[in-house]
Amino acid sequence: MAKLKIGEIDIKKLVNIFGTDKQKEGYKKDKKLNNRVKEGIIKKASKFCEIEDCGQGIFKIHKVFNLDMDNDELIFPLLKGLSQYVTPLILSKLLNEQDENYKITLSFISWAQKFQMINGNYNLMRYHQEKSSEYLKIDEHTMFDYFNKMDDCIQYYLEKIFKILSNKSGLDLIEFDSVTKVRKIIRDQSIKGVKIKFKCNFIDEEISDEDRKFVIDCENKAKEEAGITNNKDKFYGVKAKLYKDKLSELLIEKDILFTYRAYNIFCKNKKEVANVLSKFESILDYRSENFIEEFNNIFMDYIENKAIKANKREQDKVNKREQEKLNNLLTDCNVNSKEINYRKQFRLVEAYINDFKILSELTVPANARDLSDEIKITLAEKYHVDVEEL
Q1: What does the domain layout of the chain look like in residue ranges?
Q2: 20 to 30 A Cα–Cα from 38, which one of 70, 193, 251, 341?
Q3: Would you say the pTM of this structure is higher than 0.85?
């Protein structure tokens, strides 16, 4: 494959370097490219160089990135979208923060916070949605949907990148696995059966089969006692509080505070990790002062676009008859409760995008204001147990 150089390049050479066999055949036959094909080739070229379309079939390469077009094929998926920001952050943490066993273990949300995909408000609001909803005056259904979509998005990107970095048909830089961990309090045997006291020591450990069975039984019993049949009811509303209180009451019988999902990441070869990381330095300077700010802004745009798509799907469900019904409701003061609920749901659709924007601005940027003093969570609320202060 031809070596890229700074300077001008014509469309024929561009196609020969970056085009597929089919695109090369098409250009050889027609002596031209349609706009869609040309844009695709320029996009591919942009992975390897900073390129400008000067028009008239001439392009100018301003900068050549440190990538081998023949041997770095596995890196391509990491150079798109959010991955191009998250990947160098993952690699730099692996280089600098692994333990003596080459390992880092964190929950997937803790990973996201370490990589500055989210800030400290995220878990505060995620675990205390009812209180956060009241404070921000955002509908609980929207808040539940926001954190569901965000959790899915974070988990998708982390697992996607981990798989590419791993030895399973990937770059063979890491090994990783997902485990369920349990946090247990440590207290003297003499106070067994006494209500939990704070501040207490605790230990995190991989869950045993015995503890897993105990947790599952507790969850089912708590759901039954709270009358929960819909998973959403575990997170907000009256039933959520009943569920959390009962679950904590049951778990504490074995000194368990909560369980969480975590990833073990093992760095296999520091030299190779550093080599791959160096390839990102020619594309994005992850050490620059504005790198995280740029990353946060792109992530927020991504979240807002997801909200816009979801909102459009909801709007498409509102047909002409429902629009007319809403117009009638707005002019009729004597509406029954069913109509009021309908009007509330319609307004929710209208506010959905704005509420997602507000939530992302509070939970994503590294420089967002800390809400812990505004959304006050007591120790009892934090651990969902009765508390006696020591």
Answers
A1: 7-64, 76-288+379-389, 301-363
A2: 70
A3: no
